[in-house]
Write a structure and sequence with these properties.
Strand content: 25-35%
Number of strands: 23
Shape: globular
Helix content: 25-40%
Length: 506
């Protein structure tokens, strides 16, 4: 079914400053003055943001972010930590898709406080829908491989044109930012927006959340099984040394899948949404770059005013085929000494880091099982009150990387990862999300993939190594975590005859 979204006269209305919904003038660093204007047009129909994004004919850069659904029982603590501002999202924002960039923040150096301040300069609590979406590398000190070059060490954009999917309606919005001190004038900003708007499609077709069957031409794991076994044994040797402080290290793997036909990252992500309850979906693609997509269950933090929450997830089991089997697997997970150790390391580390920047921190539940369509994990929720909103940078930089994606102690685990891993994680396992004026939210970029036309996909997964880990079981866990991607593709490995028919082998 096709739907038309009216954007006629949208740009003309934007040219009149008085008609702008929100305009802000900020006195920024170095006494420069910048301006940021946001204008929106309501649509009395709910249209999925991912369908709108798919209709935009590969306009770049582009982004998509969908928060996991917040049920009433998900936030029993959060409203107690918001200084009286714990009201629900007034617009019931479900997901956001954006194209173009009103302003871009990218660099190869490690994300710093000054970078955070530069982003916040373009945001305002008076205009909460102006947000900077992006991601940060897992380890900025590691060398950047070619597939991640366009992302730099961090990459954020304030979308030029965005589509907001609301609870019962939708909204088409545009943002322009200009700064004469940076030789980016109001006229140039308007011209750039006009160019983008001229390419925006107003016809939207409902996506079929199904990926066409295709052939795998190759499927290579980095590292392979033999190297993985050696890496896990090496990690266990260090963990088991009495003189070593290392308790846990998380090792990752990428699976390079090349298919006979290109994988459409937006369709792939739409399929992941079917499995997306209690998970974040994200899509980030700079110009001339692959698309980074993911369906991650793990929250890094959510801040609203001074209230901040975080989650601890660790330990993994498959779901059972029956209620009885699923319950048995759950009991095995919650009573496993190995998984309890891994979970406790993650939960207690997050608690200590939050206590360093929060007035008080509470946990509820302290240990439970969180179920997803394909897997289940041990889970805890933490909430606290920041001393000031400027502590947002501190909570981000202290919580990342969590022991769930790096290990414990953090620096010892990071150094071992740098020593023995043979892949560049890039933004995998790094913070993915958005900064806003009075609110920000970041997930941990796991259960993710890098997709590029003509080159297939790199699917990433990791698993925690602690005392008692077995290399073959950890490999099986990686297979389970990547299965949400591979099973959606309905892939099959072709025979030599099929490959010859495709002209792959002469």
């Amino acid at each position: 079914m096709a739907t038309a979204v009216s954007s006629k006269h949208f740009l003309a209305r934007f040219k009149d400053l008085e008609s702008a919904k929100c305009s802000i003038s900020i006195q920024p660093i170095c006494c420069r003055q910048s301006f940021h204007i946001f204008h929106h047009v309501p649509i009395q129909q709910r249209i999925e943001a991912i369908d709108w994004l798919h209709a935009q004919h590969q306009l770049l850069p582009r982004c998509f972010f969908s928060s996991k659904s917040r049920r009433k029982d998900d936030d029993p603590l959060f409203t107690d930590f918001t200084n009286g501002n714990g009201h629900a999202h007034a617009l019931n924002l479900v997901s956001v898709a954006g194209i173009g960039s009103a302003v871009t923040f990218r660099h190869i150096h490690q994300f710093s406080y000054s970078d955070w301040k530069s982003i916040k300069r373009f945001l305002s609590a008076k205009c909460p829908l102006i947000r900077a979406y992006g991601a940060i590398r897992f380890d900025a000190r590691a060398n950047i491989s070619s597939e991640w070059e366009s992302f730099g060490s961090f990459y954020f954009i304030v979308p030029q044109v965005e589509f907001d999917e609301l609870g019962g309606s939708s909204m088409l919005a545009a943002t322009i930012a200009w700064d004469d001190a940076l030789s980016w004038t109001w006229g140039q900003a308007i011209d750039a927006l006009q160019l983008t708007m001229s390419q925006v499609s107003s016809t939207i077709v409902k996506l079929r959340k199904e990926v066409a069957r295709t052939l795998i031409l190759s499927n290579n794991q980095i590292p392979n099984k033999s190297y993985w076994d050696l890496a896990v044994k090496r990690a266990l040797q260090i963990i088991n040394r009495s003189s070593s402080p290392l308790i846990k290290v998380v090792l990752a793997r990428s699976s390079k899948v090349v298919t006979a036909t290109d994988i459409d990252p937006i369709t792939w992500l739409a399929c992941l949404q079917v499995e997306g309850e209690n998970a974040y979906q994200f899509y980030l693609q700079p110009p001339n770059a692959p698309a980074f997509i993911g369906n991650t269950p793990e929250q890094l933090f959510h801040r609203k005013w001074l209230g901040v929450t975080s989650e601890a997830l660790a330990g993994t089991r498959a779901r059972g085929e029956s209620k009885a089997l699923d319950l048995q697997i759950e009991l095995d997970l919650i009573s496993s000494p190995k998984d309890h150790l891994e979970f406790t390391i993650v939960r207690d580390s997050i608690r200590r880091k939050m206590e360093a920047v929060c007035n008080r921190v509470v946990m509820e539940p302290k240990k439970a099982v969180r179920k997803f369509p394909r897997v289940q994990h041990l889970y805890a929720r933490l909430a606290g009150t920041l001393r000031s909103e400027d502590d947002e940078f501190d909570i981000l930089s202290s919580l990342h990387p969590t022991p769930a994606v790096c290990g414990f102690p953090t620096e010892e685990a990071r150094l071992l990862i740098a020593e023995i891993e043979v892949l560049d994680r890039g933004m995998y396992a790094g913070p993915v999300g958005w900064f806003g004026g009075g609110e920000s939210e970041f997930a941990v970029g796991i259960r993710s993939a890098l997709v590029e036309k003509g080159l297939g996909a790199l699917i990433y997964a990791g698993t925690g190594i602690v005392e008692g880990s077995e290399p073959s079981l950890e490999w099986d866990e990686l297979e389970l975590k990547t299965s949400q991607f591979t099973k959606l593709l309905k892939l099959e490995v072709p025979s030599r005859e099929k490959i010859e028919n495709l002209g792959i082998i002469n």
